[in-house]
Every structure is written in C-alpha cells, then in structure tokens.
Automatic annotation (TrEMBL):
Main location group: membrane
Source organism (scientific name): Alligator sinensis (Chinese alligator)
Keywords in alphabetical order: Membrane, Olfaction, Sensory transduction, Transducer, Transmembrane, Transmembrane helix
Annotated localization: Membrane
Keyword Transmembrane helix on entry: yes
SMART domains: 7TM_GPCR_Srsx
Gene3D superfamilies, sorted: Rhodopsin 7-helix transmembrane proteins
The G-protein coupled receptors family 1 profile domain, residue ranges: 44-295
Functional note: Odorant receptor.
Protein name in UniProt: Olfactory receptor 52R1-like
PROSITE patterns in the record: G_PROTEIN_RECEP_F1_2
Gene Ontology MF terms: G protein-coupled receptor activity; olfactory receptor activity
The keyword Transmembrane helix is assigned to this record: yes
Annotated membrane topology: Multi-pass membrane protein
Length: 315
C-alpha cells in the first residue's frame, strides 16, 4: 500500500486504519453487534437527555451528572463507531492525518471525562446515602457546574498535548495503523525516531488520572456499602445494594478494560493484537451502551417518565 507524504511536513497526508488484525474475515460480522451497541448508546443517551430536560423535577445532582455522562458517551461513541463501521462494511480504511489527530484527541480526552463523571456520580451517591440531610446544601447547582467544568477542563488540558506530540513526529516506515481507530500509542509506534519520552508522558498521565479516579470511586462506594449495611430497614438496604451493585458493574467494565489496555501497552507485548484491540473497543463501546440502561432505565423516576412519554405518543 502506498505511503502518500506531505512534502512540507514530511508526514503522510493520510493513514490507513487496518481494523482488527487477524480478524479481517470476520469484520462484516463483528460490525453487526458493534452497530447495535452504537444504536442503543445513541438512542438511550438521547432519551435520557430529553427526559431530564423536559422534567424539571429531575434537575437534581444525580440527574445533572447523568446528563453530563450522556453527552460524554454520545461524543465518545460517535467519534469512533461511524468510522469503524465504514472500515468493517465498506473497506473505507483511509483517514486524513488531521482527522486522525482529531479523533485521537476526542477519544482520550472524553475517556478521561467519562472516568471523571463516574467519580462525580459516586460522590453524589455517597452524599445522598451517607449524609442525606446536607445533600442539597453540599451539591448546589453552582457546585455541580464547577465539578462538571473541572472534569471537562482536566480531560482537555491533559490530553491536548497528544495531537501536537504526534504531529511533530516523522513517519517514514508506514502509514498503516494496526487498529480500528486512531489511538495514541498505535500512532507513535509508527514514528521512525525514539518515542520513549512521548510514550512515558501519555502513560504517566493515563495512570495518574486512572489511579486517582479509581481510588475515589472505590472509596465512595466502600463508604456507601458500609452505611447501607447499617440501615435498620432490610428493604432499604436491598434497594441501595441493588442500585449500587448495578452502578459498580458498569464501572468495573469500564476500568477493567481500560486497565487491561493500559497494561498491554506497557507490559503485554505477547498479547495477541486482535485480543488487545477487541478489549480496547469494549471500553469505548460497552459503557456508553450500558450507562442509559443502568443509570436511566433502572432509575424509577426516569423509567416512569419515559413510559409516560411513550404512552402519550402511542395515543
């Protein structure tokens, strides 16, 4: 496959996304569950946003954080899935250099935002269950806005250097990316200079953000579970356990697959490429699909409002 270079920059004008190496014959079939997950993610998150916007009684901390998470999910899934499906179904593997850098920035920055909003929602649940009388005074609308802005700014600031770091690298080996999307580590491996410092920066940022978020999310739910076990009402305890359990399942899927991908980049050189890339797709596709179900459909007030809208629509 030819390597079209930009004469002034010395870089390829386009990259070729290979998809999932080793599973090329299955691309057309893999695209079916991927497409289904994307449709569920888009419809589910759009419904969540619409219902919360329409219902003023849902303008509370938990639901406002859920809106932020839904927007993040929509951006995260839409920045990867359409291109991935075009690769799998139409063999449209080519992506412009600038578009590749843009996709990379959105993937990494919004993944960090997703993680940050999980922390914010865990903190909200901690305050609501462990300190319910002060919930309204602690999580005011202005404080919620500040938390949301902090999460967004953190994701953008820490990952803004990534496109600039990649754009300055010379690519003289190949323009074929052995991945289904433009991922930072997959790109820097194509450079024909020593990229040890560049890799260390990205891995350090990811490890610091991930460690911070995992610690505080785990701490919040540990304190919640400690409080729940002391509730006098067995029914209230079971309800809280059910809610927290479903939230923890989504968080475990996100962090376990993200940590696997991180460790594979650093240590897992013997991991088969198709396994690595499939897992890397899971943490970008599965949480955006599950979040509307776990945080939305399982929430009674949202479920009732959705059913009410559907009932009126049928009439």
């Amino acid at each position: 496959m030819s390597l079209p270079f930009n004469a002034t920059a010395g870089n390829p004008s386009t990259f070729i996304l290979w998809g999932i190496p080793g599973l090329e014959d299955l691309h057309i079939w893999l695209a079916i569950p991927f497409c289904c997950m994307y449709l569920v993610a888009v419809m589910g998150n759009c419904i969540i946003l619409l219902v919360i916007k329409m219902e003023r009684s849902l303008h509370e901390p938990m639901y406002l954080f859920l809106c932020m998470l839904s927007v993040t999910d929509l951006v995260l899934s839409s920045s990867t899935l359409p291109k991935m499906l075009s690769i799998f179904w139409f063999d449209a593997r080519e992506i412009d250099f600038g578009a590749c850098l843009t996709q990379m920035f959105f993937i990494h920055s919004f993944t960090a935002m997703e993680s940050g909003f999980f922390v914010a929602m865990a903190y909200d649940r901690y305050v609501a269950i462990c300190n319910p009388l002060r919930h309204a005074t602690i999580l005011t609308h202005s404080r919620i806005a500040k938390i949301g802005c902090t999460v967004v700014v953190r994701g953008m600031v820490f990952f803004s250097p990534h496109p600039f770091l990649v754009s300055r690298l010379p690519f003289c080996r190949t323009n074929i990316i052995s991945h289904s999307y433009c991922e930072f580590m997959a790109l820097v491996k194509l450079a024909c200079v020593d990229v040890a410092v560049t890799k260390e920066y990205s891995l350090t940022v990811a490890s610091l953000i991930g460690s911070f978020d995992i610690f505080f999310t785990s701490l919040s739910y540990a304190l919640i579970l400690q409080t729940v076990t002391r509730l006098p009402s067995k029914e209230a305890s079971l309800k809280a356990f059910s809610t927290c359990g479903s939230h923890i399942c989504v968080i475990l899927v996100f962090y376990s697959t993200a940590v696997f991908t991180f460790l594979t980049h650093r240590f897992g050189h013997n991991v088969a490429p198709h396994i690595h890339i499939l897992i890397a797709n899971v943490y970008l596709l599965v949480p955006p699909m599950l979040n509307p179900v776990i945080y939305g459909v399982r929430t009674k007030r949202i479920r009732e409002r959705v059913l009410q809208v559907l009932h009126c629509g049928i009439k």
